[in-house]
TrEMBL record, chain A:
InterPro entries: ABC_transp_perm/SBD, MetI-like, MetI-like_sf. Belongs to the binding-protein-dependent transport system permease family. Residues 20-202 form the ABC transmembrane type-1 domain. It is a multi-pass membrane protein. Gene3D superfamilies: MetI-like. It comes from Auraticoccus cholistanensis. One of its GO terms (cellular component) is plasma membrane. This is ABC transporter permease subunit. Pfam families: BPD_transp_1.
From TrEMBL, chain B:
It comes from Auraticoccus cholistanensis. One of its GO terms (cellular component) is ATP-binding cassette (ABC) transporter complex. Residues 46-306 form the ABC-type glycine betaine transport system substrate-binding domain. PROSITE patterns: PROKAR_LIPOPROTEIN (PS51257). This is Glycine/betaine ABC transporter substrate-binding protein.
Automatic annotation (TrEMBL), chain C:
Signal peptide: none annotated. It is a multi-pass membrane protein. The chain crosses the membrane at residues 27-50, 186-211. GO terms for cellular component: plasma membrane. The keyword Membrane applies. This is ABC transporter permease subunit. Its main location: membrane. Residues 23-204 form the ABC transmembrane type-1 domain. The lineage of its organism: Bacteria, Bacillati, Actinomycetota, Actinomycetes, Propionibacteriales. GO terms for biological process: glycine betaine transport; transmembrane transport. InterPro entries: ABC_transp_perm/SBD (IPR051204), MetI-like (IPR000515), MetI-like_sf (IPR035906).
Length: 218, 311, 234
């Protein structure tokens, strides 16, 4: 390990720090966007058994499209410029939605029918029932999915390095081109550390917001 | 400072995520601040200097950007974009407004059958084709960097190979390594076949020079393409193969600009000053500081500019 | 532009860098790395599931492994070892271990306690219990672990291209190098990988379904739930 190289690139908010910040933005924006999309979409799917199977299978196929292909193909679909970070954000949002919808569906399906009927019997309107009864009960499963996608997004952003936009993944490209393993190791360590940190943070939020879900699937 | 801005946005993201998680809502976040915002560059707008996916191009990109800044033209870099097809697309869609280029290969990109062969002919032919693309080439530097085919010293001795014409002795067994796009280039396999009658058993694409060097030394490939300014050729004792038929055109370094930049005299003057001061030896030394000494392109560029009194 | 033009040109299918060769390389990397991962993860999963110990280790380990960027790992191995098949297989195997390990451990732990007690009462040894009681019950889950591992590996094996090791990722990288004109080639790479993934999914899914019908142990909810916990492609 070339510690000197690390020191030079860390001092005064040098390259590594900048890449770290960019990495978080590229990885986490899609998580937030996908959560906003997946909750209503997943709820709708969970209420319509007929389309749920084919739709979830379709998401499975979406998930198997290589991210590299999606990163480079999106400009043709979106009309974005090829170097636009939006391409990476949109691609990761698509993956995240594909995975998260499944968790949301599972979460809502896990709400016992009796609970729903009880809420109805108490005179709750559909919107209030969904927001105050079903959603909180579905959230533990959603959180489990959220943790998985956050961790895998943080790892996936690095693939963008292949098209010159991989944030910390650019350290991989640098190391590969120069035959120099220090930046590669730094990149891997930082990405794993970030992923575990955010995994822990989401778990913490879950425990604070949903104290009843302690010990639920993780 | 821009890097710190990234970090601030990142922290804001983290905060927003934490806060919004409870309410299952949250704002769509501010767009990443790295997006190249210049819509053409030049004038009062920031000039974005792009570069290709190899060391020298990134160093040149830094030289241009820092020289522009020193001349009072706001500039930033967008390094490591990719092959010529990709960065020229970025230049044309306005994602970047200047890229470092090489005269001969740039001409071949637009006109694969151009009869031009001397630097002067190439320059004249380029002016013509670039006008159609709304692009302007700055004054070419005397600094040159050509593609070159090499073999290891040992292989050259054993098989008696010193020129591209000699490759017919080994081509049915030998494997050629080079960047992926070489497969389509007129100075790549197609040109070798047409001009020298050389057809390799296989072409293996490499995206990373370090891997190519290792494989050449390990005998996984026998012939590889490099740039004449790459330190690896001398360091590894490779034999650069002669090109008696002139298949590879002279390549002088020059900035390729969007018309908005070319219309800004301060920018053109700053870029031309870099071209005038740059030599082939400088290029080789700059590449070596990055590739062998692991220094960052922006640092070595700053030192060179300071040494020449350009920044 | 006809995005199918690359796929429809017969010339692109033949030769040492043709589509057939690239498919072969891609399949080889996928199969070899999943087998290697299975070789490591299944025995370990059996041990952890059977002894009902080391759960924390499994979830911690697979979480960390999931966070490891495959591209980074591959690039590291290639930088240290040079190009070739082995670096690719090693890097992809690391990706394939977590789903197989988690599912195997869950499968062997999840065996009906009643059945296990009954086996013990009949005087079965630990090894006999594993083979005759727990194994049949765990097989569908193990297969489902192999299935999600294979899916991820097939999608991720595209990065082999960066190690000068071919595979279908080559079309994506080369197509991208060609700029806008390379789109049909990139598209071909992406479509072929997606098709391969669907085939693998159907094949292993069918196998899992057949096994599940025979044992009838794993409820659909359990399996769906486990599936949501298997992460991503690269």
């Amino acid at each position: 390990m070339d510690l000197d190289w690390i020191a030079r690139n860390l001092a005064d908010g040098q390259d590594i720090v900048g890449l770290l910040g960019l990495h978080l933005v590229l990885a986490l924006t899609p998580v937030v966007a996908a959560l906003v999309i997946s909750l209503p979409l997943g709820y709708a799917v969970s209420r319509t058994r007929a389309v749920a199977g084919p739709l979830l299978a379709l998401f499975g196929v979406v998930y198997s499209v290589p991210s590299l292909a999606l990163f480079v193909a999106l400009p043709l679909v979106l009309g974005t410029r090829i170097l636009d970070p939006l391409n990476i954000v949109v691609a990761l949002t698509i993956y995240t939605v594909a995975l998260l919808v499944r968790s949301v569906v599972d979460g809502f399906r896990g709400v016992p029918a009796q609970t729903r009927q009880a809420a109805q019997a108490m005179g709750m309107g559909p919107l209030r029932r969904v927001l105050t009864v079903e959603l909180p009960l579905a959230m533990p499963v959603v959180f489990a999915g959220l943790r998985v996608v956050t961790v895998s997004n943080i790892a996936l952003v690095s693939v963008g390095a292949v098209i010159g936009l991989g944030a910390l993944g650019e350290l991989f490209d640098l190391g590969l081109r120069q035959g120099f393993y220090t930046p590669i190791v730094v990149g891997i360590v930082l990405i794993v550390a970030l992923a575990l940190l955010f995994d822990g943070l989401i778990l913490l939020v879950q425990r604070l917001c949903l104290p009843w879900s302690r010990g639920a699937a993780a | 400072m821009k890097k710190l801005a990234h970090l601030a946005v990142a922290l804001a993201t983290a905060g927003a995520l934490t806060l919004s998680a409870c309410g299952a809502g949250g704002d769509p976040l501010a767009e990443p601040s790295s997006s190249p915002s210049a819509s053409g560059g030049g004038g009062g707008e920031e000039v974005v200097v792009g570069s290709a996916n190899f060391t020298e191009s990134q160093v040149l990109g830094e030289l241009y950007a820092q020289a522009l800044e020193a001349a009072g033209v706001p500039a930033s870099t967008r390094p490591n974009i990719g092959s010529r097809e990709v960065y020229l697309t970025a230049l044309q869609d306005g994602s970047v407004s200047v890229v470092p280029e090489y005269t001969g290969n740039l001409l071949l990109y637009y006109d694969a059958n151009s009869p031009a062969s001397t630097p002067e002919e190439i320059e004249a032919a380029l002016e013509e084709v670039l006008a159609e693309e709304q692009l302007v080439l700055g004054t070419p530097s005397s600094a040159a960097d050509q593609d070159v085919y090499v073999v290891t010293g040992e292989y050259s001795q054993t098989h008696g190979i010193t020129s591209l014409a000699d490759l017919t002795k080994v081509d049915d067994e030998a494997v050629l390594g080079g960047p992926g796009e070489l497969a389509e280039r007129s100075y790549g396999p197609p040109g070798l076949a047409e001009i020298y009658g050389v057809e390799f058993a296989e072409f293996r694409p490499y995206d990373a020079p370090a891997v190519k060097i290792k494989d050449l030394n390990d005998g996984k490939i026998q012939v590889a393409t490099f740039f004449t300014t790459e330190a690896a050729i001398g360091d590894n004792g490779y034999v650069a193969l002669e090109d008696p038929e002139g298949m590879i055109l002279p390549q002088n370094v020059a900035p390729l600009m969007a018309s908005a930049v070319a219309d800004n005299p301060a920018a053109v003057e700053a870029l031309d000053a870099v071209s005038a001061a740059l030599t082939t030896e400088d290029l080789t030394a700059l590449n070596k500081s990055v590739d062998a000494d692991r220094r960052n392109p922006d640092e070595v560029a700053a030192e060179w500019l300071a040494g020449k009194g350009l920044a | 532009m006809n995005v199918f033009s690359f796929l429809l040109d017969a010339e692109n299918w033949a030769g040492p860098s043709g589509i057939w060769v690239r498919i072969g390389q891609h399949v080889f990397y996928s199969v070899a790395s999943v087998l290697l991962a299975a070789l490591v993860a299944i025995p370990l999963g059996v041990l952890i599931g059977h002894t009902r110990r080391g759960d924390a280790v499994v979830s911690g380990l697979s979480n960390a492994a999931r966070a490891v960027p495959t591209l980074g790992l591959l690039v590291l191995v290639v930088t240290l070892m040079g190009s070739g098949y082995l670096p690719v297989v090693l890097a992809l195997a690391v990706l394939a271990v977590p789903p197989v390990l988690v599912n195997t451990a869950a499968g062997f732990r999840g065996a009906d306690p009643g059945a296990v007690h009954a086996g013990r009462a009949l005087g079965m040894t630990g090894w006999q219990l594993v083979r005759q009681v727990e194994l049949p019950l765990a097989v569908p889950l193990v297969v489902s672990g192999l299935r999600s591992a294979s899916l991820q590996v097939v999608a991720t094996a595209t990065v082999a291209a960066l190690a000068a090791a071919g595979g279908l990722g080559r079309f994506v990288v080369d197509g991208q190098n060609l700029g806008p004109g390379g789109y049909p080639q990139m598209f071909a790479g992406a479509v072929l990988v997606a098709l391969l993934a669907v085939l693998v999914d159907l094949g292993l899914g069918g196998l899992g379904w057949a096994l599940q019908r025979r044992t009838g142990r794993i409820s659909r909810e359990d399996r769906d739930h486990l599936a949501t916990l298997q992460p991503g492609t690269a």
